[in-house]
Amino acid sequence: MKLKLAVSIGALLLSSPVLAEVTISGFASIVGGQVIEGSGVDEFDLPPTFLADYPLVGAYEEEISFKPDTLFGLQFSADLLDGLTATAQIVSRGADDFDVSFEWAYISYELNEHWTLQGGKKRLPLYYYSDFFDVGYAYPWIRPPADNYTWQIFNYTGVSALYNYLVGDWTLSGQFYYGSEDDEPNKLLSEFFFLEPTREIWNDIGGVVLQLNRDWLDIRVTHMQYTNERYIGDVQQVWDGSTDRKGKFYGLSVNIDYENFLLLTELNRLDLSGTDLDTYMVTLGYRFGDFMPYAGYADFNDGEGGEVHNTTSLGIRWDFHPSAALKLQYDDVEDNGGPGLKVAGDSKSVSFGVDLVF
Question: N or C: which end of the chain has fewer CB within 10 A?
Answer without folding.
Answer: N
